[in-house]
C-alpha cells in the first residue's frame, strides 16, 4: 500500500492513490465560480485533536475550477497542491465531493467527502474500502480483493462483485481491498449510503480567515 499523506487541510487532498480507497475515473470538473466550501484567502488552520501548532495556507480558486492550496510556512514535505471539489446535494447539509487529481501514470483518482459546519470543515478525504465493501457492492461498484502472498492456510474465495486472481495454494491476502466505480451514478449511490451511516466525518479542521 502506498502511504497516504495525512491532510492538515482539506484542500491539500492531492492524496497518493492507495490500494485501500474508493477510486474511479475523474468524473467531475470544478466550477471556477463555486470551487469549494472555503472561499479564496489566507487561513489559519487547526487540525482539531492533534495538539500541534496551526498551519497557514493561501487558498486560491483556479480558472480551471481546481483549488490551489499553498502553505505559507512550509513544514517538512509540505508542498502546494490542487484538488477538485463539487457540491453534493443533501437536504440540510453543505456536502462536497472531494476528487483527487489524476497522476500521469494513473487512470483513476481517489474520492472522498467534506462538509463545512460553521468554521469547522469535517472530512472523509479518502474513504476506506475494506470497511465499506457492502455499501460499494450494493451501489454497483466493484471490490478488488488484495493480492496474495505465499503463506499457509488462507485460501478465501472472492465475494460477489469482487475481482481477484485465483490464489496459489498456501497464500493469504496482502494489503487492503480497492473499491472501483465505473460510472458516476454508482459512485454517488455509494456516497449517499456512506453519508447516511456516517453523520460526522473523522477529520475536523478549524478555519480562521486572516487575509485576502
Could you explain how this protein is built, in words?
The chain is mainly β. The protein is built from two helices and 14 strands. The strands form two sheets. An eight-stranded antiparallel barrel has the order 2-3-4-5-6-7-8-14. A two-stranded antiparallel sheet has the order 10-12. A hairpin with a 2-residue loop joins strand 7 and strand 8. Helix 1 crosses helix 2 (184-197). The longest helix has 14 residues, at 184-197. The chain is globular. Residues 1-19, 151-156 and 164-174 have low confidence and may be disordered.
Q: What is the strand tally?
A: 14
Order of helices and strands: EEEEEEEEHEEEEEHE
Mean pLDDT: 81
Shape: globular
In terms of per-residue confidence, which ranges show pLDDT below 50 for 5 or more consecutive residues?
Answer: 1-19, 151-156, 164-174
Biggest beta sheet attributes: 8 strands, antiparallel, barrel
Order of the strands making up the biggest sheet: 2-3-4-5-6-7-8-14
Work out the strand percent: 25-35%
User: Which structural category do the helix and sheet elements fall into?
Assistant: mainly beta
Separation, N- and C-terminal Cα atoms = 39 Å
Q: How many helices in DSSP terms?
A: 2
Instruction: Evaluate the radius of gyration.
Output: 18 Å
Helix content: under 10%
Amino acid at each position: 500500500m502506498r502511504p497516504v499523506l495525512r491532510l492538515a487541510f482539506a484542500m491539500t487532498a492531492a492524496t497518493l492513490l492507495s490500494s485501500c480507497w474508493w477510486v474511479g475515473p475523474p468524473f467531475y470538473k470544478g466550477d471556477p465560480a463555486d470551487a469549494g466550501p472555503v472561499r479564496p484567502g489566507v487561513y489559519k488552520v487547526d487540525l482539531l485533536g492533534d495538539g500541534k501548532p496551526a498551519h497557514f495556507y493561501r487558498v486560491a480558486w483556479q480558472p480551471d475550477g481546481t483549488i490551489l492550496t499553498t502553505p505559507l510556512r512550509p513544514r517538512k514535505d509540505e508542498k502546494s497542491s490542487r484538488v477538485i471539489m463539487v457540491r453534493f446535494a443533501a437536504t440540510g447539509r453543505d456536502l462536497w465531493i472531494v476528487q483527487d487529481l489524476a497522476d500521469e501514470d494513473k487512470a483513476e483518482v481517489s474520492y472522498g467527502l467534506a462538509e463545512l459546519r460553521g468554521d469547522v470543515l469535517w472530512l472523509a478525504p479518502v474513504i476506506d474500502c475494506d470497511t465499506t465493501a457492502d455499501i460499494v457492492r450494493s451501489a454497483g461498484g466493484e471490490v478488488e480483493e488484495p493480492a496474495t502472498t505465499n503463506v499457509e492456510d488462507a485460501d478465501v474465495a472472492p465475494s460477489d462483485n469482487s475481482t481477484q486472481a485465483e490464489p496459489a495454494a498456501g497464500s493469504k491476502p496482502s494489503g487492503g481491498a480497492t473499491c472501483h466505480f465505473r460510472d458516476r451514478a454508482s459512485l454517488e449511490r455509494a456516497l449517499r449510503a456512506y453519508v447516511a451511516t456516517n453523520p460526522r466525518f473523522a477529520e475536523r479542521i478549524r478555519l480562521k480567515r486572516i487575509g485576502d
